[in-house]
């Protein structure tokens, strides 16, 4: 697992516009989930650590050894320079769960 991935929650990834790349070690296939995919799949569990997902993943080839890493979904720049308020988006996502 990418060391940076281990400490983040789905909330962090979604709020920052990050996607999640999942690479199988057995067949070298890579699946990418965009920030929107993550929100749809984990919206009710946004505070779950991404690292907790790893043990549950099984590739179509049957492989269970995967690497998880973030990427900038859709090529968007969600830095402070674009005016994206990450804290505000996190508050909205938390509020949507309540």
Distance between the termini: 31 Å
User: What ranges have pLDDT less than 50 throughout 5 or more consecutive residues?
Assistant: 77-83
| Strand segment tally | 3
Q: How do the strands of the widest beta sheet line up side by side?
A: 2-1-3
Total domain modules = 1
Report the order of strands and helices.
Answer: HHEEHEH
Assembly category: single chain
Describe this structure in words.
This protein has one domain. The chain is built from four helices and three strands; from the N terminus they run ααββαβα. The model is unreliable at 77-83 (pLDDT under 50). It has 98 residues and is an alpha+beta fold. The protein has a three-stranded antiparallel β-sheet with strand order 2-1-3. The chain is 31% helix and 18% strand. The N and C termini lie far apart (31 Å).
Briefly characterize the structure.
It is built from 4 helices and 3 strands.
Helix and strand layout, with pairings?
Blueprint: H1 3-6, H2 10-15, E1 18-24, E2 30-33, H3 35-42, E3 66-72, H4 86-97
Antiparallel strand pairs: 1-2, 1-3
Key descriptive features of the protein:
single chain; 98 residues; alpha+beta; elongated
């Amino acid at each position: 697992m990418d060391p940076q991935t281990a400490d983040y929650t789905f909330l962090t990834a979604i709020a920052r516009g990050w996607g999640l790349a999942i690479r199988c070690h057995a067949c070298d296939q890579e699946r990418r989930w965009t920030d929107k995919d993550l929100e749809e799949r984990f919206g009710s569990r946004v505070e779950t650590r991404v690292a907790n997902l790893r043990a549950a993943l099984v590739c179509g080839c049957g492989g269970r050894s995967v690497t998880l890493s973030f990427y900038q979904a859709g090529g968007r720049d969600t830095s402070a320079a674009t005016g994206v308020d990450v804290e505000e988006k996190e508050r909205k996502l938390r509020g949507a769960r309540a």
